[in-house]
Amino acid sequence: MRISDDRYDRERSSLDLALQFLRHEARTQTIRLWTGLSDDRIRNLYRSYMSRGGSSRATAGNRHTRSRTSCAHIGSNGRVLSSPAC
Question: Would you list the domain boundaries of the chain?
């Protein structure tokens, strides 16, 4: 079995789309509606591909969003640009 076989194209496309949604931090229900994947499959994709490095992106981002009004140094991608105290 090759992953490039035509019979796997639809599943591969669904997985790729789900990963794009996960990178944009879309809700599970939205991903499920657009891809047809189950909730468990979506959670497994998140665990396998998005939570590498010990902490998830969502957890790391929440640290900065709490103090968004008090810290003007946060860029559009959520990273602190000049002050680590934010």
Answer: 6-50, 56-86
